[in-house]
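We modelled the chain as a single entity of 202 amino acids. Its sequence is:
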Amino acid sequence: MSPTLVQDLTDVSYPTIGHFLEDGFVSPAIQSLLDNVKIAGPAVTVRIADHDAIAMNHALLALRPGDVLVVDMGGDHRHAPVGAVTAAAALAQGAAGVVVDGVATDVLELRQTGLPVFARGTSCLTTKRLYGSGSAVNVPVPCGGVEVNPGDLVLGDDNGLIILSPEAAREVLGKALASDAAEPAILARIASGEPLESILAV
């Protein structure tokens, strides 16, 4: 992966990518619990089986600065694997954010940390230290209808989440940047009162 690819992606308006691609868009049920966030980073994935909190600890130890932790709860939308302690640990590892296909907890504390956390909602019911055997770190996992492979790029802001392979990200980057660069002139033409027939594609 180009060392500048992640930085270049943060210059793109993520909804612009939706003009060019159809795949990789995570279910809008998974949204940021914080306002005014924007993240981009490679995925570290964890599959949590049977609401086992120990799997999350293993995943936290695998994080490197700039990583985004993607958590597959196997369809469990009741037990929260992310709260104040896990968010603090992720921040200590330098994580760019956490994405949970499920719920989170300690939402006030999460917002105070400033760590971007995306989830389907919040819950007071949490995972437990069970030391089970069905969980795994850095394996392909589903997240909001999209398969996430370790090292895929996770893009997220207040609009939602996109998962792209580095190759797909490189392919769309130039087109998205060019589209963003052209948009202010279009908005200015609309604001000036120019007839829409001469601006909009029909």
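As a brief sanity check on the tokenised model: The longest helix spans residues 166-191. The longest strand covers residues 38-47.
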